[in-house]
Amino acid sequence: MTMSESLAIELQFSGGMELLFDNKKTIHTKVPAHFRQGADSHAVTIRDLIGWMASHLLKERPELFIGPDGSVRSGILVLVNGADWELEGELEYELQDGDEIVFISTLHGG
């Protein structure tokens, strides 16, 4: 990972997730390349991204996006550059410049 100040990433939402993000299906954004916790600094992870999204992009109903553990709630499929995030380390995946992160709700009303 480069030591730049921010990373350009693309966020995509579908299955109703876009309704929580101002009805946008795609958001091109920049996130800090490193997060600081106390005196420590670390490369930004998906765990950090979820919190950042909640405070900067989420427009309503955070309980439909974030679970009690600070991760995405169950029923949301997360893809990192087209691969299931479970193959990439889930919350601990370190974001790279140009990453594409997709959030798909698998829960639908009937």
The gross shape turns out to be globular
Low confidence ranges: none
Number of helices, where a helix is a run of at least 4 consecutive DSSP H or I residues: 1
**CATH architecture name:** Roll
The third-level CATH topology is: Ubiquitin-like (UB roll)
CATH domain class name: Alpha Beta
How many separate domains make up the residues? 1
Give helix and strand order, one letter per element, not per position. Answer: EEEEHEEE
* Strand proportion: 25-35%
Modified residues (1-thioglycine): 110
Protein name: Ubiquitin-related modifier 1
Cross-link (Glycyl lysine isopeptide (Gly-Lys) (interchain with K-? in acceptor proteins)): 110
InterPro entries: Beta-grasp_dom_sf (IPR012675), Mopterin_synth/thiamin_S_b (IPR016155), Urm1 (IPR015221)
List the helices and strands and how they pair.
Blueprint: E1 6-14, E2 26-32, E3 34-37, E4 40-43, H1 46-56, E5 76-80, E6 83-84, E7 100-105
Parallel strand pairs: 1-7
Antiparallel strand pairs: 1-2, 3-4, 5-6, 5-7
Subcellular location: Cytoplasm
Organism: Entomortierella parvispora
Main location: cytoplasm
